[in-house]
Write a structure and sequence with these properties.
The protein is 65% helix and 0% strand. With 109 residues, it is mostly helical.
Length: 109
């Protein structure tokens, strides 16, 4: 068995002392049982890693939404520009609209 020295604030030591008295044992045994329970508790998730992954996922989705909103804005502008002009009635012949729809702006990344 190894010895370990732990420095505690007074109020934490007082609480440990009260727990030890309630269980009629020593503070060292209480600390050892707390550490053992904490170490042996199954860890399925690394919380910081999970939070980081969720934040990255949210950031990716926000970026995707932003790109889609920009594409929608450009399409709306073109629609407004084309409104009422018979020369732009055929969607396949509209050069500006085709340029917007076929642009490589990483829309679906």
């Amino acid at each position: 068995m190894k010895k370990l020295t732990v420095r505690l604030e007074d109020y934490i030591y007082d609480r440990l002392y009260l727990v030890a008295n309630d269980n009629t044992t020593s503070v060292n045994k209480v600390v050892a049982s707390i550490l053992e329970k904490y170490i042996n508790e199954p860890r399925e998730i690394n919380y910081l890693k999970e939070i980081d992954e969720k934040l990255k996922n949210i950031d990716d989705k926000l970026e995707k939404i932003s790109k889609r909103q920009y594409k929608h804005f450009k399409l709306s502008q073109q629609h407004f520009a084309n409104f009422g002009y018979l020369s732009n009635a055929d969607i396949k012949e509209d050069k500006c609209l085709n340029e917007i729809l076929n642009s490589k702006d990483s829309f679906n990344e």
